[in-house]
Amino acid sequence: MSAAFSKRRLGLGTSVTLALGVALVPALASADAGAELGIRNLSSVIATPASPSAVGPTCTQNVTITSLANHDLVSTELGYAGNEYAMLRARATVEGPWEQYRICNFPSDGYWTIQSEADGLFVSAELGYTGDQYAMLRARASVVGPWEKFTLVPCGLSCTSIQSLANGLFVSAELGYTGGQYGMLRARASVVGPWEQFR
């Protein structure tokens, strides 16, 4: 969106908001060919869902996901290796490239996908893992399969829960973990509590 288009679209409000240091970007959901500009949070994306009769996905770029339990942004850990590469963790206090996602709604099929903008890969719930890493979320899939499908459910004002369609469980930010696994996202909860709430 060019600056000229923004000014025509928003009118006088553009000058006022830019002078205040706040940029307003209208909530324009678009088909896969294009997506929104500006930064949005997860709750704002699901606030205006696509029509169930829409053909193809409705996608939004530059979306941040924040844990409401610790108020940290979710990061894709591209510095990790092996089975932890691209693990999602609620641990960042400042937004950067690792904290931006592309969220797509497939209304006719009843699911959402989450794609890391940093590595371009889809988020998977690792159901093949065991123990404390069971159902860890990682941005590692190049195609969408059962482990890459989620539902996004409102859980209050500016609150969204993420549920894996593959195992039916809600995503938790593991705030009881320490070190490099603190805040790991896992699809492991049967009910929504504080650790399962995101914005």
UniProtKB/TrEMBL annotation:
UniProt keyword annotation of Signal present: yes
Gene3D superfamilies: 2.80.10.50
Any coiled-coil regions, as ranges: none
Keywords for this protein: Signal
First and last residue of the signal peptide: 1-31
Domain of life: Bacteria
CDD domains xrefs: beta-trefoil_FSCN-like
Name of the protein described by the UniProt record: Secreted protein
Natural source organism: Burkholderia mayonis
